[in-house]
Amino acid sequence: MVGPGLPDHLAGLAGTVVPALPGVPLVFLGLFVGAWIGHFETVGWVSIGILAGLAALAWIIDFLAAAAGARYLGASSRAFWGATIGAVIGLFFGIAGMLLGPFIGAMLGELSGGSNMVQSGRAGVGAWIGMVVATAAKLAIAFLMIGIFLFQLGFGHAGVTA
Fold it and tell me: Domain range for residue 71?
């Protein structure tokens, strides 16, 4: 029962780290398909609701963390959008691009608004910290979701369902 959703789980876990991929929603989709294949007998609707709530929480964290990190260090909305665009462009430059893209994008966004180099650098650092915190939180939520699913599978075979 776990097997058919496994590609979605793996794509989802990759997506929690790689920007611009809907990681946690893919994990949820894989878990939902796994529950559906089992006719929601082992993993019931209560568990699916909890998993959906966790997926929504991860989506909110994804948007708020980068903005909060940039705002905490005094960045404008241009820095946030620059970091987002930098993260997407960074995908094409491997790991270095994924790490530096949001930083460079936030700096360029802030510079385009007329900020000085110091303020732009602070915006870049804030956006990067926010992205790292968001990635760690999304990864933790994705593993929590998989753990809840596997826990339900284990106890479902023992006759206990939620």
Answer: 3-156
| Contact yes or no for 148/50 (Cβ under 8 A) | yes
**Local confidence pLDDT in tens for the 162 residues of the chain:** 445 555 555 555 555 555 556 688 889 999 999 999 989 988 999 999 999 999 999 988 877 776 677 777 777 888 888 888 888 888 788 888 878 888 899 899 999 988 899 988 888 888 888 888 888 999 999 999 999 999 998 875 555 555
Residue 132, domain member (yes or no): yes
Residue 161 resides in a domain: no
- The answer to pTM > 0.85 is no
69 DSSP assignment: H
Domains of the chain: total: 1
Nearest one of 7, 54, 40 to 26, comparing CA atoms: 7
Task: List CB contacts of 117: < 8 A, sequence separation 6 or more.
Answer: 111
